[in-house]
Every structure is written in C-alpha cells, then in structure tokens.
Amino acid sequence: MAARRPFTPFTKPSPDPFRPLPHIPLLYPPSRTIQIMSAFTFENIVTASALHPKPQNIQFTYGTAGFRMKASLLDSIMFRVGLIAVLRSKKLDGSVIGVMITASHNPEEDNGVKLVDPRGEMLEQSWEVYATSLANAPNDDALVETLERIIAQNKIDVNKPSNILYAYDTRPSGPALVASLEDAIKAAGSSYTNFGLKTTPQLHYGVRCLNTQGTNDAYGEPTEIGYYNKLATAFRQIVSDKQRLSPLYVDCANGVGAPKLRELIEVIGEDIISVNIVNDKIGVEGALNHNCGADYVKTGQRLPPGSTVTSGDRAASFDGDADRLVYYYVDTDGTFRLLDGDKIAGLSAMFIMDLVQAAGVDSIKVGVVQTAYANGNSTTYLTKVLKVPVSCVSTGVKHLHHEAEKYDVGVYFEANGHGTVLFSAEALQTIRTAKGRTPAQTTAIAQLRALTDLINQTVGDALSDMLLVEAILTHRQWSLKEWDQAYTDLPNRLVKVVVANRHIFKTTNAERQLVEPAGLQADIDALVAKYTSGRSFVRASGTEDAVRVYAEAATRAETDELAFRVAELVFDKAGGVGTRPARV
Ligand code: 16G
Ligand code: MG
C-alpha cells in the first residue's frame, strides 16, 4: 500500500466562494452573488415576461421531478419558476430557495427545472400546485392574477427580502434557460447567486448550508470545496488503517458527475481511493446519457456498450445529474450482476445497525423505506435476515424522504439507485454526545459520527452514496460478489404500455394495487396467482405519457411471461394505443 500523505482540508481558495477549482475547465462565466434592491412590482414582471411568452396549446405539470420536457419548450417555464422561487423565499422570510436546471437521465435535448426548499429538500407539495398554475397562465393578465392569488393565499409580504441559489448541469440548453430564470429573478427584485455547474445533490447541499450557516444546525461550508472537504474528511476517517480496494470503474453518463468526481477524488487523495472515470465526454454533442449511465444499466440490466469491465472488475454508473448510483460486476461465468438501490439499502442498513450496536447506542432504531419496485427478495432479506422495519411508499423521492424522517435512522433507496440515509435530530444528538466505555465502542462512535458527515442528508447523491458503499466495502474488505451474497434478486421485468389516457389509472396501497379501471386488478391477481413467487403491479408514469407494468417471479421465463400477459391485459382493457406489447 502506498504511503499516506497527511490530510489537510483545502482552504477557501479565493474570495469568491463559488469559484470553480483552477484545473476544471471553465464552462460558464464565474459566478457572483448579485444583491438586488429594487421593489417587487407587477409592472416590472409583466414587462420582462413579454420576452418569455407561454407557448399555446401546452399544458404543463410540476411533477415528481419538477418540470421536464424538450428544452425548446422550457423558456416560459424557467421565467415563471423564477417568480415562484422568489415568492417562496419571501414567504419564508428570505430563506434561500434552490433552483436546479437539469433533466437527469433524459436525452440531451431535454431539460428541466425543480425547486429546492430551505433545508435542501424537495419543494413542499402545496407549492407544486402554484408552480403548475403559474406555468399555465395563458397571458399577462392571468399571470398577474395567479401571482396575486398566491400572494394573498399565503399572506406574502412582497417587500420582504428574497434569495435564490441556482445551478445547472452540462446540457447545451443550460445557459439560455439560466438567462430566462435570471430575467424573472431580476424583474422581481430578488437577490440571487449563480452556483454554476453542479450536480443536483451539490445544489441541495448548498441551499441547506446557506440556510443553516451560523446556527447550531450548521450543515457545512456553502461552497463546492466545502462539500468535497466534508465528504473527504469523513471518508478518510472511516477507512483509516484499512487496505485500499481495487480501482472502481465509474461511468459518469457523460454528465456533470465526471468533473465533480474527479474533484472529489483529488481532495480525498488517490492513495485512499482509486477510480477509473469512464464516459466523461461532457463537451461532446449527443453523448449525455446516450448508451450509458445508471438508468441505461438498471433498465437494460446490462453493461454500457463498449465497456471494458470484465470478471474481477468493480464498476458503478451515475446518471446525468449524479443523483443515482448503481454498482455491477461480471461473474466468472460471464453473467452480468447488478447491485442496484435495493442492494445499496441492504448494505447500508446492515452496516449502520452493526455500528449502532458496536457503539452501544442501541436506543437508535434503524428503518428502511422502499417502493413497490423493490425486489421481493430484498424486502425478505431486510425483514427476515436483518430484522429491520420496512415501509413501502409511492414512487418519487419526496415520498421516500418524508417516510424516512419517521425513523431515528431512515435508510431510503429506490431500486433505480436514488437514495440516502437520514439521521433524526435526536439520533444525531445521541451520536454526537455518546462516550465509549471501551476502545471498540469509542471507535464505533467515531465512525458513526463520520457517517453522518459522509452521507448527504438532503437528497440521494451518487458521489456521497458511492463513498458510503466504498467505505463499507473497505471496512469489510468485501468484493462486489461478497456484497451480492446477501440475497439473490428475483428475476424482474418492466414493460411500458402506451394508452389513450394514463390518468384513468388510480392506485392504492403504495401503488401496489389498482383501484381503477374497475376490475383490472382482479384480472391481474388471477394471472399472478399462476406463477411461483409472482408479483406484478401497474401504475401511470409520472414522467412519461405511459403506464408501467412491473413483474417478478421465480424464473426468468415465468417473469417475462407474467410481465407481458399483464401488459397485454392493460393494453386490451384500458385503451392501449399503437402496437400491442410484443413478447421479446
Ligand atoms: C422521477 C423521480 C424518481 C422516480 C421516477 C419515476 C424525483 C426527484 N425523481 O425521476 O424518484 O423514480 O421519477 O419515474 O422524485 P416514473 O414515474 O416515470 O416511473
Ligand atoms: Mg438524476
């Protein structure tokens, strides 16, 4: 093992806290905080809005991932999201509200925008409705009326200050959309900071840091280097004295994760962690998320084309904005093995439960939150082997996040690789004040403390989650195959069905059962009953105009058959459009 250099956190490199590190190519102009003192007037807003008219005949919806669509349709949305952000900040006495411009794993020509609340969480649900109505206001009069209604309903004092922090990913449409957003923020007389090119979780981190600065609850230094230092210090502490693992291939989906991972590794030190970054072509047109990234690997359950990963290698993929992570390897017989969000949840829960016990703070109870997409065998492993409470909620980060807050330590992951671990205020207090009675206890307490810094508690974060997995594997000196031994996934299959109206699909029981169309669930149940360990459910997508069918069963053949029989049922009985789902 190479000798370790002593670790000194980087200090703030320049008076501008948001300056990118020197060796990262400057894709966008350096950022500055702009203080604006002008008044909030409808006149200013209407004048500026004239440059950002709403396209006719389009109905916009603030969905599970904010607004997301072809970038060419987003101009008016960006302007109006800027207005909502300003009002939200004023409503919350000038707390910083985040705006992230990204379309995650979608194709490069798409873009999107979502708002981040003061603690780095997703926008409160009641405000999603305001964002939707404002986005759909057909003309200036309707725009002003909607703003007035939001202001009145929320008793907003428009003379209060407001502060916005925004960031964007590597999409070519980013700069033009930033300009539309800024037009709105300036017209509304708000202060703002351009946080520059960032991963989605870095923006969430920045928002929480700015809002908690100088309080007992301070989350960290609100800079990019502050983020790297926090993660690096924690990681180095957890793996100290442990043998370094072999290099990890990381497919960054040709997105923002590539330069940011490079930064992070540099701060941690290559003597501590070694990665081979692949798919880092952020300047190449059409490359983003194309035949690579976490969504490609998870959906297709295969290596990205051109991957050089072979048996014995360790590999992982991020998505385009670096808030999803999946791991994988190739078995000795050449079989591709995926370690998805469910596997990460199992590994994290196991490790944290062991540490809690070793630290002698067993009053802290760990729980896991999943969605209906969690593999049946992962749920069995959690409940029967780890004996940890598991809740199942609807798809979408906000649902998982809120449920996880109910536990002392809430581990939440979607099977697609998005997730994190939340520590309650009481759990944090217990961990911070615990005193070990033995050297082993003292070490375990210190490690738990480091974990609370290592894990991005605002939102799922591919960089932070990767360090969490690497820390656990280093600790145990486990290969990916050893981690994979916890349980074997049931074969599973996802099929998309296009229907005339997906909104007729209404579900209950955390999306596991259909209430409407009437009778369809009984037909699905009858099919499922014919398969060993069969399970299937149907729900309308929140991000695409389609219905998704999920199925799992004891064997690959049974799974495929079940998935397609359910898909055919949906197509035939609930207004299928186009070609009937074909078995492949
Ligand atoms: C969004 C959600 C993700 C969910 C996915 C489901 C957030 C930030 N993202 O990407 O959690 O898994 O939608 O997509 O909430 P679907 O509704 O199209 O199946
Ligand atoms: Mg994403």
Give a description of the structure:
The structure is a single chain. The strands form five sheets. The chain has a six-stranded mixed sheet with strand order 1-6-5-3-4-2, sandwiched between helices. Strands 8-7-9-10-11 form a five-stranded mixed sheet. The N terminus is likely disordered. The termini are far apart. The chain is globular. By secondary structure, the protein is of the alpha/beta class. The chain is 38% helix and 17% strand. The chain has four domains: 166 residues, Alpha-D-Glucose-1,6-Bisphosphate, Chain A, domain 3 (3-Layer(aba) Sandwich), CATH 3.40.120.10; 114 residues, Alpha-D-Glucose-1,6-Bisphosphate, subunit A, domain 3 (Alpha-D-Glucose-1,6-Bisphosphate, Chain A, domain 3); 145 residues, Alpha-D-Glucose-1,6-Bisphosphate, Chain A, domain 3, CATH 3.40.120; 83 residues, TATA-Binding Protein. The longest helix is centred in the middle third of the chain and has 18 residues. It contains 18 helices and 20 strands. It binds 2-acetamido-2-deoxy-6-O-phosphono-alpha-D-glucopyranose and magnesium ion. Magnesium ion binds next to loops. This is Phosphoacetylglucosamine mutase. Belongs to the phosphohexose mutase family. Keywords: Carbohydrate metabolism, Isomerase, Magnesium, Metal-binding, Phosphoprotein. It comes from Jimgerdemannia flammicorona.
